[in-house]
Amino acid sequence: MSYENILVQKENGIATVTINRPKKLNALNRDTIQELHTAFSALEADAETKVIVLTGSGEKAFVAGADISEFADFSVDEGGKLAAKGQELLFDFVQNLGTPVIAAVNGFALGGGLELAMAAHFRIASDNAKMGLPEVSLGVIPGYGGTQRLPQLVGKGKAMEMIMTAGMIGAEEAKQCGLVNHVTTQEELLGLANKLATKITRNSLVAIRGAIKAVNANYEDGVNGYKVEISEFGNCFGTEDFNEGTTAFLEKRKANFPGK
Would you say 144 and 116 are in contact if contact means Cβ atoms under 8 Å apart? Predict the structure, then answer.
């Protein structure tokens, strides 16, 4: 499938999705959000895709934010619908994918860009990365999950400071507060992402899918995450991956998981 605003490459079970609007610093517009939804849907359905790496093209930005020109004249109703549709199509969708998603943040990740990175299952960053939610400087608040996911990752106080000051933090500070897991040079960023992705591919993707569901349940209102964990744990006992994993352990060999 061909896209106008993104690139998708697949190799050795790892798909790399690159947001490709360098002249706009990879800003998210309607078309890009829709293309990302389509691409993630296709990769989720592809049995050969075991991990997805998400990044931005060029050296300046992961995603510098949303394309403000698209909604500058929106009404109250239109603004609400914009946030609801975007969360459904992309941000919540990515968070709940069963296929692991690693955000490789190169350069600026601002507004919707940071919100997209936070929707991924975890993040790594280049040492020149800058992250922030500057929406209040435009008279609006983060609308793609930023007010919810940022406190979950960095704590309420730090999130409040970042949102209210509209300031940016660098990669090392982002690592210190738990926003990103690793920091490396821009040249080594995708290499590190692929190294981590390769480690993931060696494990049971059926079990990983269940683990993602269980971890996410902890952050859903009205859902008992412990019960979800118990259910997903039990489900593992009926899988071919469980049989292979336990057999390989007892036979003192590496497991070759069928992914079923």
Answer: yes
Q: Which two tokens stand for residue 87?
A: 């969360």
How distant is the alpha carbon of residue 191 from its chain centre? 18
Angle, helices 205-217 vs 225-236, to 10°: value is: 170
Q: What does the alpha-carbon distance between residue 181 and residue 203 come to, in Å, rounded to a whole number?
A: 20
Q: Hey, what's the torsion of the CAs at 116, 114, 136, 220, to 10 degrees?
A: 50
pTM: 0.95
- Kindly report, residue by residue over 95-133, the tens digit of the pLDDT: 999 999 999 999 999 999 999 999 999 999 999 999 999
Residues with a catalytic annotation lie at 115, 135
**CA 88 – CA 251 distance, rounded (Å):** 45
Provide the CA 89 distance to its chain's centre, in angstroms.
13
Tokens representing 117? 């990175």
Over residues 142-171, the pLDDT tens digits come to 999 999 999 999 999 999 999 999 999 999
* 8 A C-beta contact, residue 8 and residue 196: no
Q: Assign domain 6-201 to its CATH superfamily.
A: 2-enoyl-CoA Hydratase; Chain A, domain 1 (3.90.226.10)
Alpha helix ranges (H) inside the chain: 30-45, 76-86, 92-95, 112-119, 146-154, 156-165, 171-176, 189-201, 205-217, 225-236, 240-250
